[in-house]
Amino acid sequence: MRQTFDETTRPTFGREHAPLIRKAMEAQGLDGFVIPHEDEHQNEYLPAANDRLAWATGFSGSAGAAVLFRDKAAVFVDGRYTLQARDQIDPEVFEIRDLVQGGVPAYLQAEARQGWAIGYDPRLFSPDALERLKAAAAKAGAEMRPVAENPLDEAWGAQRPPQPQAPVGPHALEFSGEESAAKREPTRRWSPPRPASPGSSTSAAAT
Q1: Do the beta carbons of residue 111 and residue 69 sit within 8 Å?
Q2: How many domains does the chain have?
Q3: Tens of pLDDT along 79-128?
Q4: Is residue 4 domain-resident?
Q5: Does residue 2 fall inside a structural domain?
Q6: Is 5 a member of any domain?
Q7: Residue 100: burial class (beta carbons within 10 Å; 0-12, 13-18, 19+)
């Protein structure tokens, strides 16, 4: 899969899809749900079938997240996507917030409520990221709850594109610029510098 710049979303996605996700959340007893950009493989550039954040919000950038509560929601983007987010996200559905300054953990701590269950798909988070979310939710008296079935995927349903099935092959030379063997050769020939022996001029200069 190669990155493209084709427009694949509409600002209406949030208005169209958020209610569907909330309905699936309610069926699972969830008060909130965290939607990361990353997929099951922690990829940055995603096949359409795994671009959950884009389908939920309309935002198609390569980094971000969203939190969907029963009565409010927010999308988190970094400084690269400030203008893009304004163009792609319906502000009546999602508040736009900074991904780096506070980000999702700060939002959970401030906006979650005592006793709430906030769902997450455990396939989509690194252990470190998940620990930060759990700690933030706990400070608000809420619980991060893993889901067996992703409510976003349930809402997406038959509209979800199929997973890519293209065969895997070597990166073409026209894109890589150099053969793989040529790239590996400098690494094969490299050897780490030897430490200076005691009493050498290098050692004496260091002291």
Answers
A1: yes
A2: 1
A3: 999 999 999 999 999 999 999 999 999 999 999 999 999 999 999 999 99
A4: no
A5: no
A6: no
A7: exposed
Structure token digits, residue 44: 């940055």
Rounded to 10°, the helix 103-111/127-139 angle is 20
Contact 140, 108 (CB under 8 A): yes
Q: What is the pLDDT of residues 173-184, one digit of tens each?
A: 898 888 988 989
Using the structure block, give the residue that is written with the tokens 């005691």: 198
For residue range 44-66, what is the model confidence (pLDDT) as tens digits? 999 999 999 999 999 999 999 99
CATH of the domain at 93: 3.40.350.10
Which spans in 39-99 are helix H? 52-57, 82-88
CB 63 within 8 A of CB 81: yes
Closest CA to 154 of 111, 107, 119: 119
Residue 65: give the domain boundaries: 13-159
Residue 7 lies in a domain: no
